[in-house]
Write a structure and sequence with these properties.
- By secondary structure, the chain is an alpha+beta fold.
- The protein is about 30% helix and about 10% strand.
- Among the domains are: about 90 residues, no CATH class; about 35 residues, no CATH class.
- The protein is built from five helices and four strands; from the N terminus they run H-H-E-E-H-H-H-E-E.
- The strands form two sheets. The chain has a two-stranded antiparallel ribbon. It has a two-stranded antiparallel ribbon with strand order 3-4.
- A hairpin with a 6-residue loop joins strand 1 and strand 2.
- Helix 4 packs across helix 5.
- The relative contact order is 0.08.
């Protein structure tokens, strides 16, 4: 089954994810569209959620299944609502989000915000490592950072060089032709 991306704006996000239960239901729906299976016996019949823990007991084998197991939320005591807001803020801010700002915005301790960002960044890096560039690949360099006192551009600058690569597959009938024109004389 193909997972489709669903863009959310700020108002849509905060009207969808209003409670801890709404976040947990969304997580379960995304991970298991046909219902959460028991990790031990595979059945999909559970007792009601335990009040004090994010766990569901299987009616067949009595095993406790946790919807956050195997995710960045595994064994966290931070509410899922805080996690979802943090994920939204990280995805929404193009410049990057510091642990200090995240802690202030969510009312968390700095150490908690740092640990959350660390888990998110590790998960993003792990996912990025699984992608390979295919089709046509274009590579260019750019330089970031504050310019030095004597402004130079290109390779002589003191700015940090970054290599950027983009891959794309051309769509038939869209784009430019790379063939030789007939009237080119050669």
């Amino acid at each position: 089954m193909e997972k489709r991306y669903h863009a959310r704006n700020l108002m849509d996000f905060f009207t969808t994810f209003t409670t801890e239960e709404a976040c947990e239901r969304h997580l379960m729906r995304v991970r298991w569209p046909e219902g959460m299976p028991c990790l031990r016996c595979g059945k999909k019949d559970f007792y009601s959620r335990l009040k004090d823990r994010r766990a569901y007991q299987c009616k067949a084998c009595k095993f406790f299944n946790r919807p956050t197991a195997g995710t960045i939320f595994h064994r966290t005591r931070t509410p899922l609502l805080h996690w979802f807001v943090a994920l939204f803020l990280v995805a929404f801010d193009k410049r990057g989000l510091s642990a200090l700002l995240l802690a202030e915005e969510l009312g968390l301790r700095y150490e908690t915000a740092w640990a959350m960002l660390h888990r998110m960044r590790r998960a993003m890096a792990k996912r990025d490592a699984s992608y390979k560039l295919r089709g046509y690949v274009e590579i260019d360099e750019m330089f970031i950072g504050a310019p030095s006192q004597a402004p130079k551009s290109g390779r002589g600058t003191d700015q940090t060089p970054i290599l950027v690569a983009v891959s794309y597959t051309p769509i038939k009938g869209v784009g430019r032709s790379h063939g030789v024109r007939k009237d080119a004389g050669g």
